[in-house]
Amino acid sequence: MxxxxxxxxxxxxxxxxxxxxxxLDECFLVNDIKIIVGAHGCFxxxxxxxxxxxxxxxxxxxxxxxxxxxxxxxxxxEYEKVTGQPxxxxxxxxxxxxxxxxxxxx
Length: 106
Hints:
alpha+beta, Arylsulfatase, C-terminal domain, 4-stranded antiparallel β-sheet, two-stranded antiparallel ribbon
């Protein structure tokens, strides 16, 4: 699966650096991906919805670490291109820690 388009919408905020959308294989769009500054560097947060129990659950997310890294790198590269500012630290997060949502929380 190829990431065929990336659009970044910078935001002037200390925690949320901006939003992004990606197109996969010219046929599937994912909006509302957040670019966030965390304690261990920048990472992406996939679109999510708040559940009745107050927890958030991803609506769409990469299944593999390889795809997550590919999405992050393409978004971070586009952010740097659009803003002219480097992402301070690129943090690749392990699953479960801002990674894919735990499917047991359904």
